[in-house]
Amino acid sequence: MPKIPTFKATGSIEQLAGTTSNIQVGLNNNLASALAPVTKAIVDFKIKENDIQNRTEALKLKNDYLSEVSDIEDQINQDEILSVNKNAANKYLKEKNNALIEKYSALATTSTVKTMFTNSALADVSKQIFSIDSQISRNILVKADDMFADSKEKLFSKAYLKGGIYKETLQADAEKLIIDSYKSRVTAPELQKMLDSVPSEIQMFDGIEMVSKTPRAAFYFLKDEKNLPNITYKQRINLIERASVVIREQITTEWENYKATIAAGKDPPRFDMKLAVDVFDTRVGEKMVVEDTFTKDRVKNNAVINNSPNNIVGEVVQGFIDEGYEMYGQLQGAENEKYLKDILIKREKAMKSDPVAFYRATDSNIESLYEEMQNDDNGDSIAATKKILTETLIQKQKDMGVGNSAIRITSKSEINEIKNTITNNDIPYVEKKAFIDNLPIIYGKENMSKVLNHLQYEKLPIEYIVAISTNSDSLTEDILSGEKIDDLKKIVSTRLDSGVKFNSIEKKVTKGMEDWEDVIIAQGEGSVVKTNYILSVQAAIYKSALQRIKRGDSISDAVGSAVTDFTQDYYVAPAKTYFIPSDVNGVRTLRQTIENKAEAILLEVETGDYVDRFHGKDGYMHYAKFAGIENLSEKMVKERITSTIKNHSKWLLNGDSTGIVLNAEFANGTYPITNSNGQKIEFFFTDTPNDKNILSTEFKFPVTGDDITMIEYVSDIGAYEFEDANNKIIIEW
Is residue 54 pLDDT above 90, yes or no? Predict the structure, then answer.
C-alpha cells in the first residue's frame, strides 16, 4: 500500500504564536466590520443547508406517502363496486388521503418540513382523482362490454338450445341489444357496422351447430360458398377445419375397424374413402387409397387362409406370398408377406386358445347361429339351434383337418363355467349332479367325449373328469362331495384297526386298478404325463374308498366297491395295450365284435398284404425322413418299414379313448402307421363312419374298405361264439 506521508514541524512555538493572517484590517475599520463578509457567507451557507435538509425530508415523506396511495388506487381498481363508481371511489380516496397526509405530516421534524410535505401531497391529490376517474371510466366501458357479451351469449344460446320463437327473433333481438348497449357510446357508422355483423354471426352459429351434430354433412355443405353466404372466408375455413377434426377421428377408428375386419377374414363394412381423402392431407389420403386397394386384394385371401385345412394352410399362405411379390413388387410384396404371416400366427394362436371363438369370428354361418340363440327366448328352439351349431362346429373342424380328440364344441367361457360349477365346494352335490346330467342334453350324448377332452385340456383336475365320465352315481357323489382327502383321513383314522395305515389302503386301490393302469402305461405319451394321470385317477378312487369307510364299510369292501365302480366301465384287452369302454357317450359297445375285428386286422397286417394296400401307390417314402433313412432307395425304405410294421405293431387308444389306432414301434419311438395322405389304421368303438362311410363295427379294413375274412372257429357245440360285454351270443351254422 502507499505510504501515508508524515510531516515534521520545522518552526518553533514562538514562530507559531507569531504567525500572521492574511486578514488585514484597515486603520479606519473595526474588527466587526472587517469580519462581516465572512459571517454573511457562513449564514447563507447554513440557510441553504437547512433548506436542502427540509426538502429532502419532505421528499422522503412524499415518496412514502405515494407508495401507500398507489396501494389505495389498486384497491379501488380491484374492488367490485369502487372500480365502477366515481363518487364512491373519490370519497374513499379522500378519506384515505386525509389519513395518510395526517400520518406523514406528524412525522415531520419541523414545521417547515410539515408545510412542504402537506403542500406537495395536496397538490398530488388532483392527479390521483383524475387517474382514478379515468380508470373508472375505462372500467365502466369494459363492464358494459362484458355485460353485452354475456347478454349476447345468452341470447344466442337460448336461440340454439330452444329454437322456435327464440331462433326466429334472434336477429331482431341481437340488433336491439347492440343499439341499447352502444348507441350512446359509438358513432353512427360504427353502430351500423356492428348491426351489419349480426347475420354473419348467426350463420356462424348455424355452421357450428351443424358441425357439432352432423360433421360429415357440414363438411360438404360448407365447401359450397353458396351456403351461409354471410360468413367470411376465414370463418368458413375455420368451420371446415372444425368438421375435419371430428371426421378425422371418426375416419381413423373406422379405418382401423375396416382393416381389422378384413384381417379376420370377414367382409368389411362400408368405408368412405372419398371423405377420408378430402379431410386428410394429400400424403395421408393417397397412402390410404393405395393401402385400401392393396387391402381389398387380400380380403378373399384372408378368408381362404382362415378356412384352409391345417395340413395345407402353410402352402396356401406361401402361394399368396409369392403372388404378392409378382403383383405388387418387392416393397409391397414384403409388406404383404409380413401381413399374411401375421394372419397365420393369429390363426394358430386363436385356434389354440379358443377355437370356437375363432370359428365364430371367421365363419358367418356359425356367427349367425350364435346370434339366433342370443335373440331367441324359446327353450325348444334354442336347443334345436344349439344342436345345429354343435354339428356345424364339428363338421367345420373336420373339414379343416382337426383330429377327432382336438375337436372343440365349447367356447372357453363355456368350459370355464363348467369348471367353476363342478369345482365349487359351496355348491351342493345335488346341484352339481343336476348340472352334469344336463351337459349331454345341451351338447348331445354323442359329443360328451369332446367336452371332456376340452375340460382336460383346460386343466380340470382328473378326479372331476372321472366324476363326469363314470357310470357310477356312487363314485360321482364321493368325488364331488367337496371333502378333502386329509379331512377324510382324520375322520376315518378313528375307525381303523390298530396298526392299519392309510398307505395300505392306497396300495389296495393301486392293486385293484393294475390292468387299467397297464393300458395307460402302454400308450405313446410321455411317462411323466401318464404317471400323473394314473396317480390322479388313483387319488379319486382312494377318496371314494375313504368316503365309504367313513359311511361304515370295511376297508376291503370300500376299496373293492370303489375300484369296481370305476373298472367296470372298461374291458382290458388281453394284450393290455387298449381297453374297450362299456359305452361311449351312452352308446353301448360290442366288446367281442371290436376285439375280433382288432385281432383280424392285426393278423392281416402281420401276415397278409393289407399294409401294401393301405399305403397304396404312393408307397413308403414318406417314412424316409421320419425314420432317418433318406439316403436309402425306395425299395430299401419299403423293406425296412414293412418289416417294422409287420413285426412290431400294436393297438393303442386314440386321443379321446373312443377307438383304437394301430401303432408301430419305430426306432425313434412308437407312432401311428400312416400313409402318404395322413390316414391311419383306426376304427371306433361305436358305429362312427369313416371317410368312405364305412361303419367302425363293420368287418371291413380301415381306409381300403376291403372285407375282413374271419377265420372260422368251431366250438365244441358246433357254433360260432361271439361274446359282447354283457351277453354271450351263439350263432348257429
Answer: no
Contact 608, 642 (CB under 8 A): no
With a pLDDT cut of 70, the percent of the chain lying above it is 87
Q: Are residues 617 and 671 in the same domain?
A: yes
What is the number of structural domains in the chain?
A: 4
Q: What is the maximal distance between C-alpha atoms in the chain? A: 194
Q: Which domain holds residue 73?
A: 47-142
Three-state DSSP class for 723? strand
- Tell me the β-bridge partners of 572: 579
Cα separation, 264 vs 248, in Å, equals 24
17 vs 206: CA distance, rounded Å: 110
Helix/strand/coil percent split, the chain, to 5 = 70, 5, 25
Nearest CA-CA partner of 553 in 505, 481, 482, 503: 505
Least Cα distance to 690 among 664, 659, 650, 732 occurs for: 659
Please give the distance of CA 99 from its chain centroid, rounded to a whole number. 72
pLDDT digits (tens, 9 = 90+) for 634-672: 999 999 999 999 999 999 999 888 899 999 999 888 999
Of the candidate ranges 109-113, 415-419, 616-620, the one whose mean pLDDT is the lowest: 109-113
Q: Output b/e per residue, 387-408; b: 16+ Cβ within 10 A.
A: eebbebbbebbeebebebbbbb
Q: Which three cell numbers stand for residue 671?
A: 407312432
The answer, yes or no, to whether residue 30 has pLDDT greater than 70, is no
Cell matching residue 73: 388506487
Q: Using a cut of 0.90, tell me whether the model's pTM lies above it.
A: no
> Exposed (0-12), middle (13-18) or buried (19+): which is 412, by Cβ within 10 Å?
middle
| Cα–Cα dist 460/480, whole Å | 13
Is the same domain home to 137 and 164?
no
Residue 475 has pLDDT above 90, yes or no: yes
* Confidence label for 690 from pLDDT (cuts 50, 70 and 90): low
Helix (H) or strand (E) holding 693: none
Predicted pLDDT at 693: 63
Is 701 within the bounds of a domain?
yes
Domain boundary among 521, 543, 573: 573
Same domain, 629 and 714: yes
The answer to whether the beta carbons of residues 307 and 316 sit under 8 Å apart is no
Residue 462 lies in a domain: yes
In a domain, 550, yes or no: yes
Query: Does some domain include residue 484?
Result: yes
| Residues in the chain, total | 733
Nearest to 393 by CA among 431, 430, 367: 367
